[in-house]
Amino acid sequence: MRLLLTGAAYQLRLLRRSPGDLIALATTPLLTVVFLAVVEHNGRPDLAVNAVLAPALIALWGMSLLIAGDMIDAERATGTFEVLVATPARLWPLFTGRVLVVTVVSLLGLVESWLVATVVFGVPLRVAHPGLFAVTLLATVLAMSGHAGVMTSLFVLSRSARIFQNSLSFPFYVLGGVLVPVALLPAFLRPVSTVVFLSWSADLLRDSLRPAAPDSPVLRVGMVLGLGAAGAALSWWLLSVVLRRARRTGSIALGG
Amino acid sequence: MTESPCIEIEGLTRTFSHRIFLARRPITGTIALDHVNLIVEYGEVHGLLGPNGAGKTTLCKILATILLPTAGTVTVCGSDVVTDPRAVRRRIGIVLGGDRGLYGRLTARQNLRHWGALYGLHGTALRSRIDELTERFGLTTRQHDRVETFSRGMKQRVHLARGLIADPELLLLDEPTDGLDPVAATEFRALVGQLRAEGRTILLTTHNMAEAEQVCDRVSFIDNGTILDADPATLSALVSRYERIDALGVTEPTRARVSTIAGVERVEDLPDGYVRFHATDRPAATAVLRALVDAEVTRIRNSEPSLEEIYLHLMGGQRGMRVD
Ligand SMILES: Nc1ncnc2c1ncn2[C@@H]1O[C@H](COP(=O)(O)OP(=O)(O)OP(=O)(O)O)[C@@H](O)[C@H]1O
Ligand SMILES: [Mg+2]
User: Fold this and answer.
1) Could you tell me which residue ranges the ABC-2 type transporter transmembrane domain spans (chain A) (predicted)?
2) Would the CA dihedral through B195, B199, B201, B205 be positive or negative?
3) Tens digits of per-residue pLDDT, B186-227?
4) Is the minimum distance from the CB of A248 to ligand 1 under 6 angstroms?
5) B101 vs A247: CB contact, 8 Å cut-off?
6) Which end of chain A is less crowded, N or C, counting CB atoms within 10 A of the terminal residue's CB?
């Protein structure tokens, strides 16, 4: 737990030194403009909620994966990875704490998107179920931080994964029902997307902005948290594989 | 505490193999360490001397649990580096040479705080430890500056402070003065002297003889992954095996006569006018002395060979420090 905080504190200091890392947040308002323009033009105000949430979720996913995927490479570049491995600290909480900070900061994307909608487009937005909204956001941040660590190890294990880093996100935007609800996806994709926590998060967030009473919210938040825990377990296991392999092959200082 | 040594290495071998894409077995490449045995007692400053690529860094990394041994057993502060790396990590500090290994974008103090936290330190204990170390290493005035703005010598002090943050019993220093100017290097050696006075065990790698001679209690030579004469008795035997006697005003006949004495390996003219007789053992040296005194040569001096000479002697025939 304390290591989680240590990681978080470190990441905060880094962010303060180099706010350039937040560049992803620059595209969020632009995406919102594009999505909302389409929605408005077609006279579908009911879809404004989708248009506002999608860029925010894209920022969340993109920023978390970016930092997570880059973490070990950055430690190698500064020559600190070896020294880190030689400390008694467990690296998983340390790394996860760092991702957590970035994920929380990425929620600024939601604020941006919201501002674009209300100020630029004058779309009236109201959180119909504020409790559910808050709980879902929290669960989403946790699940995201748990999952992102998978990237940390994956990029170390396979150099070629990095080439796909950018394109890797798009299938998840589809499977995660970021803009288009999963229910509208082709039937064969639906089972796959039920194991993507983002699809549950996206649906819940949209529901919490709409007046209709949401369907079994507790179960669905539970799904977000459960899938998040599974992702965290996977990232924990992958990291231990990576560390063991690095100690054996001597690839800690060098590339993968 | 038991009387077992601080570092105990037995039959340590480390190979680096590389894998070819899709190949079933990795290809065995370099043998970085080859059946190395080494013992370092508590409180000892032990020097590990060797040329580039000798295996010094590899050995340090294995002791620091950064690398796994391929074969052999390594015990550090009573714990095995393979089966109980965490226990080892808690009791060692490591300073790898070079410019890297710190977070340049953070200040010196933030770096120390971060690394301290990784050793489980926090709160007042951590703060006073950092105060103590910054004070001691002359970093107090610059502790709030980013490390990337520091000179090499300043960075090295932060490195050392970081290595000491958790008050380790064993400090591993891999070429700590590499890249330091002579003043900074001398300062650094003085610091090592202080740490030794505190009773800390230090393993220091270097290819600088003078440094090893100056700060180390014992020295091991390493080359091609093999340790030569880690045993101090053997080493001191080596030292006395190569005795030299320098004499001034030696006439040609005397010189000719002395050089035929059994055990005189070589005769050499020194720049200062002295003639140096290299004897392979003590009796030979004594015989040389007697012959010189008999020939009424009065300006005689006897000097022990420096580490550098032993080093060159040991390595010379094989490859060592040859300058091409
Ligand atoms: N990660 C690695 N992968 C492959 N080979 C390696 C690796 N690390 C070291 N080696 C090889 O092992 C041998 C010993 O290297 P090592 O770095 O331990 O030498 P060193 O004594 O520290 O040299 P230097 O004085 O140059 O620092 C060298 O031949 C080196 O090329
Ligand atoms: Mg080295």
Assistant:
1) 11-208
2) positive
3) 888 888 889 999 999 999 998 877 788 788 888 888 888 888
4) no
5) no
6) N
- The answer to whether A85 faces chain B, any CB pair under 8 Å, is yes
Q: Which has more pLDDT, B18 or B293?
A: B293
Q: What is the DSSP letter of A128?
A: S
A/B interface, count of CB pairs below 8 Å: 82
Q: Region A106-120: what's the mean pLDDT?
A: 92
B199-210: buried (b, 16+ CB within 10 Å) or exposed (e) per residue?
ebbbbbbbbbbe
CATH for B243-303 is: 3.30.70
Which amino acid would we find at residue B267? V
Taking the model in full, what pTM does it have?
Answer: 0.83
> For A35-76, what is each residue's pLDDT tens digit?
999 888 888 888 888 999 999 999 999 889 888 888 888 888
CA-closest residue to ligand 1 atom 18: B55
β-sheet bridge partners, residue B154: none
Q: Is the pLDDT of residue A231 over 90?
A: yes
Residue nearest to atom 12 of ligand 1 (CA): B32
Contact A224, A136 (CB under 8 A): yes
B75, two tokens = 């015990």
Architecture of domain B7-237: 3-Layer(aba) Sandwich (3.40)
Q: How many structural domains compose chain A?
A: 1
Burial letters for A47-81: b for 16+ Cβ neighbours within 10 Å, e otherwise? Answer: bbbbbbbbbbbbbbbbbbbbbbbbbbeebbebebb
Q: Does the distance separating the beta carbons of B120 and A78 come in below 8 Å?
A: no
Per the structure, the complete domain to which residue A231 belongs is given by: 2-255
